[in-house]
Amino acid sequence: MAASANTSTIVLFHSAYGLRPAVHAAADRLRAAGHEVHVPDLYEGRTADTVEDGMAIKEEIGQEELLKRAIMAAAPLSERGVVYAGFSLGGSIAQNLALGDEKARGLLLLHGTSDLAEDAETDGLPVQLHVADPDPFEPHDWLNAWYLRMRRAGADVEVYRYPGAGHLFTDPDLPDYDEEAAEATWQVALGFLADL
After folding, report:
1. Overall number of domains in the chain
2. pTM passes above 0.70
3. Nearest Cα to Cα of residue 106 among 37, 193, 47, 186
């Protein structure tokens, strides 16, 4: 399916837990809205039951190798102008790729951000972040600084905070799940994608 004014090609990256059912369910929700969605498996089949196990897999593979795998997965699609998206760790990976891809159409961050290079620059890249409030992995001071750096880099940023939700509140298979916050997130995110 070719991308049109109301549909996008989306590369959706999983969290530190790996490519679990919730990621496929999210991809299916996006496909139902007419988008073409790709879900790379950066852990090559491995998944984790706890965040500690997931972080151990991440450390074993290494950040550089994860980014390399992500770039390899997205490269065949990037000529079309893709939307990068991700959950937590996947959000940080998506951000790195989007800021390095001048053809990126948008960046959808769910539960996670990444630091920016001092010379990061983009030409009005639409960015939407959905995050718990408070979130131990995305504290207020960090998010405020991140927002200012993204704006300085030229991104058009929207931040949505969900009081009382757990970190990965969109994943129904985790204790963090918050149905009301998850549904609100998807409604706003689908509107964001429809407007790209």
Report:
1. 1
2. yes
3. 193
Domain boundaries, position 170? 9-195
Residues 6+ apart with CB under 8 A from 11: 37, 38, 40, 73, 74, 77, 82, 83, 84, 85, 94, 97
pLDDT tens digits, 101-138? 999 999 999 999 999 988 889 999 999 999 999 999 99
* CB hemisphere CA count around 117 (13 angstroms): 10
Count the neighbouring beta carbons within 10 Å of the beta carbon of residue 183: 11
Q: Give a yes or no: residue 4 inside a domain.
A: no
In this structure, what CATH number is given to the domain that contains residue 121? 3.40.50.1820
Residue 68 lies in a domain: yes
d(CA 187, CA 8): 16
